[in-house]
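With this grant's support, we have settled on a layout for protein records. A representative record follows, to show the layout.
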Amino acid sequence: MPTTAFDDVFTAFYQGPTKHNSPIKSSGLGLTIVKELLMRLNGNITINSDTASPSFTQFVIQLPLTRQVSQRQMESRK
């Protein structure tokens, strides 16, 4: 994936150019939804692409780590 398309892939209904006549059709909403969900979870998604190998594209998802303590665990600590 060319680096010029990095920002566009998160735009709703964006469909990048294809080199082949692919029978697979998409709405262009997948990464938009993923990014929105991650933002609501205080996370992030980034793209890495190897310019030497244009067919290699990596999406990296980051989420904060938190530990949820149940009410039962809180009561047992008293």
About this structure: The helical segments are 30-40, 71-76.
